[in-house]
Design brief:
The protein contains eleven helices and eight strands. The radius of gyration is 20 Å and the shape is globular. The chain is of the alpha+beta class and about 325 residues long. The strands form three sheets. The chain has a four-stranded antiparallel β-sheet with strand order 1-2-4-3, with no helix packed on it. It folds into two domains: about 80 residues, Phosphorylase Kinase, domain 1 (2-Layer Sandwich); about 220 residues, Aminoglycoside 3'-phosphotransferase, Chain: A, domain 2.
């Protein structure tokens, strides 16, 4: 089965009971196995799967595991959210409504995490947030042959400091980290199931909403996004003031997250020989551009907006957008 850019390999089969299953193999040097050995604890996938299941999140059942060999066998829950929406576009709003409600319920259930949980050992801290923005500068700008002027570099550094500082001020909680249409499953029981959650960490409440509603692989109008945000706010029991603040948090994190994503798409092509993600470069930066236009005017962000516009034009000239 297709496994994306991960070193993991996936094999689909049918058990003797008739249930569909997936065997997932993690090679010896897979990051999850290396982390498990270094910390002397279970594979993150197993630990977080159990945490989510106990919190009422629909995750694949575990049929068997030989973690010392990097082998896991889990339930096959079928289509991804992306596949279901492509096949039945008329159901997209209903599925995304379920996705925001499932996320809200999970955030409430996971508000108090076990102190020894692996999620509590890592977070979107200053180092990680800064690294992700620098990743865009390195791959989304310089790797494309663009040298920033001294003024542009200073502007980028000022924007980085501002974005990181403001995101760090936001309350933290459980974050899936990649809660988007290719990592969610549209199950036959009309629930949204979670996969690829092994990198979960602490971060702001809007982070997974950004992954879902500013998905590089999907296209939504702002009315659609506003409706889903309203449903999330209702499900979380947010006050009107908190719901309004959530909208600004979404835009702020969109800038940081989507810049990182744009850099990743070039990184995948240059280091792994996979150009398939390059077509998302321009649309992703357009999400950043739009988010910057909705944020309050800040001098620190003006220079960043110019760099983003410049890279959009370069990406367009090189065909880095959907055909």
């Amino acid at each position: 089965m297709a496994g994306g850019l991960s070193s993991r390999q996936f094999f689909g089969f049918v058990r003797a009971s008739g249930e569909r299953a997936i065997a997932m193999w993690l090679p010896e040097d897979a990051p999850e196995r290396e982390l498990s050995r270094r910390l002397d604890r279970r594979l993150p996938f197993l630990e977080i799967r159990e945490l989510l299941e106990q919190a009422g999140v629909r995750v694949p059942r575990l049929f068997g595991a030989r973690p010392e060999r990097g082998l896991l066998v889990v339930e096959d829950l079928g289509e991804t959210l992306a596949e279901r929406c492509e096949r039945t576009p008329g159901e997209r709003a209903a599925w995304y409504q379920r996705a925001v409600q499932e996320l809200a319920a999970a955030q409430l259930a996971l508000a108090e995490l076990p102190p020894d949980c692996i999620v509590c050992t890592r977070a979107f801290d200053r180092e990680l947030l800064t690294w992700e923005l620098e990743h865009f500068r390195e791959w989304g700008v310089e790797a494309l042959g663009v040298t920033l002027t001294a003024a542009q570099r200073a502007a980028f550094e000022a924007a980085t400091r501002l974005l990181v500082s403001e995101i760090l001020e936001l309350p933290r909680g459980f974050v899936h980290r990649d809660y988007q249409s290719r990592n969610l499953l549209a199950t036959d029981e009309a629930r949204v199931a979670w996969i690829d959650f092994q990198d979960a960490l602490l971060g702001p409440r809007a982070y997974d909403l950004v992954a879902l509603l500013r998905d590089s692989y999907q296209s939504f109008d702002e009315t659609f996004v506003e409706e889903r945000l309203g449903e999330f706010a209702t499900a979380r029991g947010l006050s009107a003031a908190d719901a309004s603040a959530l909208c600004m948090e979404l835009e702020l994190i969109t800038v940081q997250r989507k810049l990182k994503d744009a850099g990743r798409f070039v990184f995948f092509e240059r280091t792994r020989g996979d150009p398939s993600y390059l077509r998302f470069f321009v649309p992703t930066l357009e999400l950043v551009q739009a988010a910057l236009s909705r944020l309050p005017a800040r001098p620190e962000l003006q220079g960043l907006a110019g760099i983003v516009t410049q890279q959009i034009e370069i990406g367009r000239s090189r065909g880095m957008l959907p055909t």
